[in-house]
């Protein structure tokens, strides 16, 4: 099964990043629909959702509410996923120290968190957004049992 097919298993909301144009606009100059890693970091920092490796749950929830808009079912799913993904401080520190593709300014931590949240939200996709098919159920089961690293990556592209 290809990743494009997997993306259809859980109908996730497009992220609304426009509220962050003032604080993160310099990272919004992108080609295509993939969000640059520095944009993830800027959004996390400007929302104060993450302080170093510590998650501020209230700020994270407010951030997620801004990002998903009317998709209220995903606020709890994404917030819980973010809490789970920030629980292992050893992994967080490892990714915080890394720089993305040789960048001297952007940490790999936000991209790691986004990948982890996508995996967890795929597994816990709200029923109304889930495609009940054999392929999707098999992909969900595989994702639940695949632990290449604690965050895991199921779908690694992030669409605006």
Placed side by side, the strands forming the largest sheet appear as 1-2
Q: List the helices and strands in order.
A: HHHEEHHHHH
Count of folded domains: 1
Number of strands: 2
Ends distance: 23 Å
Strand content: under 5%
Q: From the alpha carbons, calculate the radius of gyration and give it in angstroms.
A: 15 Å
Q: Note poorly predicted spans.
A: 149-160
Mean pLDDT, rounded to whole units? 80
Structural class: mainly alpha
The biggest beta sheet is recorded as: 2 strands, antiparallel
Count of helical regions: 8
Overall 3D geometry? globular
The share of residues in helices is 40-55%
Please describe what this structure looks like.
The protein has one domain (34-145). 51% of the residues lie in helices and 2% in strands. It contains eight helices and two strands; from the N terminus they run αααββααααα. It has a two-stranded antiparallel sheet with strand order 1-2. The two termini are 23 Å apart. Residues 149-160 have low confidence and may be disordered.
Search tags:
two-stranded antiparallel ribbon, disordered C terminus, mainly alpha, 8 helices, 2 strands, 160 residues, single chain
Give a concise summary.
This protein has 8 helices and 2 strands, in the order H-H-H-E-E-H-H-H-H-H. With 160 residues, the chain is mostly helical.
């Amino acid at each position: 099964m290809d990743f494009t097919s997997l993306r259809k298993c859980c109908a996730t909301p497009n992220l609304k990043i426009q509220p962050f144009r003032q604080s993160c606009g310099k990272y919004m100059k992108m080609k295509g629909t993939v969000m640059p890693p520095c944009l993830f970091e800027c959004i996390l920092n400007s929302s104060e959702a993450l302080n170093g490796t510590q998650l501020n749950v209230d700020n994270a929830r407010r951030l997620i509410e801004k990002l998903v808009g009317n998709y209220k079912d995903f606020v709890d799913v994404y917030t819980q996923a973010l809490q789970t993904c920030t629980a292992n401080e050893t992994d967080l520190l490892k990714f915080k120290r890394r720089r993305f593709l040789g960048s001297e300014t952007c940490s790999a931590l936000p991209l790691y968190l986004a990948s982890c949240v996508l995996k967890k939200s795929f597994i816990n996709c709200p029923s109304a957004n889930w495609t009940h098919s054999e392929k999707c159920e098999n992909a969900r089961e595989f994702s639940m049992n695949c632990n290449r690293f604690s965050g895991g990556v199921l779908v690694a592209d992030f669409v605006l």
